[in-house]
Amino acid sequence: MEIELTKENYDGEVIKSNMPVLVDFWASWCGPCKMVAPIISQIAEEYNGKVKVCKVNVDDQGELAAQNAIVSIPTVILFIDGKPVKKIVGAHSLDDYEDAIDEFI
C-alpha cells in the first residue's frame, strides 16, 4: 500500500516513522513518473512490513517538494530515522530501486 503524503501527515509518516520510508515525488503530467509508478507499487508489495512507501504529488504539495529540494521528477528518496539517505532522480529499473533499499535495510 502506498500512502499519499500531505504537509499535514508528512512528519508522522516520514520523519517519525519507525521503519525506512521510500518517498516517490511525482506529477500526473510527467511521462517518466508514469513509467516508475508500477515499479513503486511493486516495491510497496515486495517490501510490505519492511519499508513504508509514500507518494508526493508535487503539483498538490509544492511545499513538500521544496522542503526536499526536488528540482526534477520523478525523484525517489529513501528516509531512515527521518533523514534522507538515498536520492534517485529520473526513471530507473526495479533492480536499481531494490539495490538502493537493500543497501540500507
Automatic annotation (TrEMBL):
It comes from the Bacteria. GO terms for cellular component: cytoplasm. Residues 1-105 form the Thioredoxin domain. Gene3D superfamilies: Glutaredoxin. The record marks 24 as: Deprotonates C-terminal active site Cys. The active site is at residues 30, 33. Keywords: Disulfide bond, Electron transport, Redox-active center, Transport. The record marks 31-32 as: Contributes to redox potential value. Disulfide bonds join 30-33. One of its GO terms (molecular function) is protein-disulfide reductase activity. PROSITE patterns: THIOREDOXIN_1, THIOREDOXIN_2. InterPro entries: Thioredoxin, Thioredoxin-like_sf, Thioredoxin_CS, Thioredoxin_domain. Belongs to the thioredoxin family. This is Thioredoxin. It comes from Hominilimicola fabiformis. The gene is trxA.
